[in-house]
Amino acid sequence: MATAAPKKKATSTQYEAVIGLETHCQLNTETKIFSPVSTAFGTPPNTNISAICLGYPGVLPVLNEKVLEYAVKAGLALNCKIAPYSKFDRKQYFYPDLPKNYQISQYDLPIAEHGWLEIEVVEKPGDEPMRKKIGITRLHMEEDAGKLVHAGSDRLAGSTHSLVDFNRAGVPLLEIVSEPDIRTGAEAAEYGQELRRIMRYLGISDGNMQEGSLRCDVNISVRPVGQEEFGTKVEIKNMNSFSAIQKAIDYEIERQIKCLETGEKIAQETRLWEEGSQKTISMRSKEGSSDYRYFPEPDLPPIEVSVEQMNQWKGELPELPAQKRHRYEEELELSAYDARVLTDDREIAEYFESAIAQNANPKQVANWLMGDIAAYLNSEKLTIGEIALKPPILAELVNLIDQGTISGKIAKEILPELLTTAIDSLQKFVESKGMIQISDTGELEKIIDKILSENADKVEQFRNGKTKLQGFFVGQIMKETSGRADPKLTNQLLGKKLKG
Amino acid sequence: MLDREQVHKVAHLARLDLTPEEETAFTQQLSSILDYFEQLEELDTENVHPTTRAIEISNVTRPDTLRTMEDREKMLQEAPEQEGDFFRVPQILSTED
Known about the structure:
Distance between the termini of chain A: 71 Å
Largest sheet of chain A: 9 strands, mixed
Largest sheet of chain B: 2 strands, antiparallel
Structural class of chain B: alpha+beta
Number of helices of chain B: 3
Subunit structure (chain B): Heterotrimer of A, B and C subunits.
Order of helices and strands of chain B: HHEHEE
Oligomer: heterodimer
CATH architecture of the domain at 4-41 in chain B: Orthogonal Bundle
Helix content of chain B: 25-40%
Strand content of chain A: 15-25%
Distance between the termini of chain B: 29 Å
Helix content of chain A: 25-40%
Number of strands of chain B: 3
Mean pLDDT of chain A: 90
Keywords (chain A): ATP-binding, Ligase, Nucleotide-binding, Protein biosynthesis
Radius of gyration of chain A: 31 Å
Family (chain A): Belongs to the GatB/GatE family. GatB subfamily.
Low-confidence stretches of chain A: 1-10
Pfam family, one (chain A): GatB_N
Radius of gyration of chain B: 22 Å
Mean pLDDT of chain B: 87
InterPro entries (chain A): Asn/Gln-tRNA_amidoTrfase_suB/E, Asn/Gln-tRNA_Trfase_suB/E_cat, Asn/Gln_amidotransferase, Asn/Gln_tRNA_amidoTrase-B-like, GatB, GatB_C_1, GatB_Yqey_C_2, Gln-tRNA_amidoTrfase_suB_CS
């Protein structure tokens, strides 16, 4: 080649991160996993305790049937294989928040394995989403530990003694472990959000990260692109929002790349995300990894989920967020963005579906929901079920605009009242308020004639070439009709009359 | 055969403080127990699935309904130390799990 095309400068090594998430999700059952005491959050210390969750001698833990049902449903929703034979094991370690000195968990025969979920990552608003399947290694049931309050200091270091609250000990958890399929902080945050969406759709967990009902730990290593083996794995904990997960991972990727480039050794360790400094800090070295000496829990018989039972639970699964997104795009021809926003919350999605079931235009219903209605819910801190405007009335609103019965402008004006006042029929409501759009040619012509005769001088000016006065006449007509004149028809008739 | 190192490790995991004499004694005793169990290796277990239960029973569950439980005060009082609504524990020295 005579003239070399400008070549991209040979850059230094490209790196990629290999990320897996371990998520603990509290189930919203009434009672604990192995004992019939309350799981309520925020009650005074040690009020929801029993001899079973405190590990007193001679007690017998019995599995809560809802926990099994929820675990199987979550497994099915995550496209997992449900184990035909599953069991509990004792994971042994000493820590004051663990009263029995072992946690009842599942080790080699978890209730569900080999699943996946689909995430959608959007780089910039308006971009087509990148879809990716993230593998689920396993899902198992276990009990939560208690909570420690460190006296004399808000941190462990420096405290003189600690106080233990066992209200949380024995609250049911699902631990969900992903395959190391995640590559960026954004993908990890989206994975966490999709997982939470699925749990909320199933109605099995509130997914509240602040209260700790959803907790994500991240395993992350970095390697040069093309390298087969993984780099040294670091665990990050202590993120209590999805944006913190994203930021912690982005920070950690940079830190590990820097280590690789300067030849510094990456320690296999656990690091904590510090929200204040926006950094990860070393917590403890993981070398000589723990020996939990798992063995089968002798007090709990194994679980054999029958095919009939599994099929019944399968039949009870709702349509899941990813299925809804695909359907909204394919059948309702909504954009990927609209589909994502509408399906984020199951209640909103069901409201939307109930409105379009009344033959209202899906895109218009979506616009109202995502625009004025969402803004109202946000500012008033309400959920969609708490407003007076019910799906049939929203459907009627969209249909009355479509049919030309009311103008879009009037619709926007009456919305605040509709949001707070329940009505039976929007048609009757707008009629009684005299808000029906004037679309009758004869009636409009009469009004136009009146305006033109009152402004004879301006008509003269218009005819002499000052054509932008058309806007002035439209304004006068709207004023005269309190905005009820059909804008399209008005412009049409006005144009004809002005030409004379 | 169990060596001293293994006994030491098991003792550490169980948070047991053994004297050198005890370590020697337990190494011998535990080894002889394990040797005794090793007789089982004579059996052909090729087609036997690992056992996770002693009795043929599975799927024991209870309904998710609240029950009034034992006296809370009594449970708190059973602990070595109590402080208000809490169980009190000595200073935690290590975060190792």
